[in-house]
Amino acid sequence: MAATRTIVVAGAGIGGLTAALALAAKGFRVVVMEKAERLEEAGAGLQLSPNASRILVDLGLKPRLAGRAVTPESINIMSARAGGEIARLPLGEAASFRAGAPYWVIHRADLQAALQAAVNEHPDIDLRLGCQFEDVTAHAKGLTVVQRRGNARQQELAVALIGADGIWSSVRHHLFPEVQPQFSGLIAWRGTLDATALPREYTSARVQLWMGSNAHLVAYPISGGRQINVVAVVPGTWNRPGWSAPGEANDIKGAFASRWPATARMLVNAVDEWRRWALFTVPDFGEWSAGSIALLGDAAHAMLPFAAQGAGMAIEDAAVLAKALGDSAGDNTAGIPAALKRYGKSRRARVLQVQRAARQQGRIYHLAGPLALARDLAIKTMGPQRMLARQDWIYDWRV
Ligand SMILES: Cc1cc2nc3c(=O)[nH]c(=O)nc-3n(C[C@H](O)[C@H](O)[C@H](O)COP(=O)(O)OP(=O)(O)OC[C@H]3O[C@@H](n4cnc5c(N)ncnc54)[C@H](O)[C@@H]3O)c2cc1C
């Protein structure tokens, strides 16, 4: 296929792989450059709400995810202060039917493996592992993208470059070097455990969200229900970049040792091996593109995890990007900068709204004292259906 139809995607995370499939479905040849030698587990579980799962279903991924993704029956909101459940938001088949797509909880590695298998089977996608995006220059024929594999450099002629290379994005640095991720003062700890290690009533298909003073805890089944994913978010000063630094189990166990109900402590104590990552965000910086280069996913808008939408927004970005380029580019490369601008413009407002919602949700989860009491009462008064309806603007989104 001619270079006039080649798009380079830097990064083979959830965003980059989804973008590759969506762009190939619009008739582009896609080269995906991924610096890692292997795509392997990083970050454990993900919740994917219908706004994101709908796109994956449309890309034909449902059969590949069968047996791996779990559809939870409910989100159980638990209060550490009250010591138990304060609301149960119904999900399951009824909610999937209503939203026209499932709510899934899934191991990140399972989703990435399904995306990678689909990418590998696609004749127009060339996934290059162990290839780092290094540089790009623009000229009359489009872009020359430089990749590095070990000491060897190789060039690729392309009509567009998409930076899906995560929060520490090199592509973003190339375009907007002044933009720096900001440390939130929060650290996410995560671990998985074998479902058989817990009493059965704690391993059913549901998302447990425990809200406590200055901390929260989330647990849900992944890998077809064989494992339980546990994530605890607490304040801290350790702020090294990365997804998977080992964490000292006693530190996180200590944070939950007092004033947390027995069930929450049991979940934390049951995990043997903890990984931690410092939570950074990318502040809004206006444009997401310059010329024929655009950003996608965490590279453009890494957010706090409280709305469980970071990967969801990357998946939405991929679908909107492919539509914008597919609609306007044809064989004419002159239309690409305008299409990328339209993509960024149409995504930015929604992503800002979701980022704000995530921040606000975080503050609510971590309330202490009388404010936590008021929160618990407000949630009870509102009731599960109204609580769930508050998410409609996120879940009902369509390309
Ligand atoms: C605690 C926590 C819980 C979360 N839970 C959820 C959730 O429930 N639901 C949800 O939707 N989101 C969740 N998220 C957010 C989600 O994990 C991220 O938003 C999402 O993974 C971002 O995907 P991405 O493809 O943009 O970036 P990444 O997944 O970071 O992928 C970037 C890729 O680019 C590669 N790369 C980097 N530099 C280069 C280079 N120079 N050349 C080539 N390749 C390069 C990297 O190796 C990597 O593979 C959570 C995040 C955290 C921290």
Automatic annotation (TrEMBL):
Domain called FAD-binding: residue spans: 7-356
Show the GO MF annotations.
FAD binding; monooxygenase activity
Record carries keyword Cell membrane: no
Ranges that cross the membrane: none
Could you say which cofactors this protein requires?
Answer: FAD
Q: Which Pfam families match?
A: FAD_binding_3
Keyword annotations for this protein, in alphabetical order, are: FAD, Flavoprotein, Monooxygenase, Oxidoreductase
Q: Does the keyword Magnesium apply?
A: no
Q: What is this protein called?
A: Salicylate hydroxylase
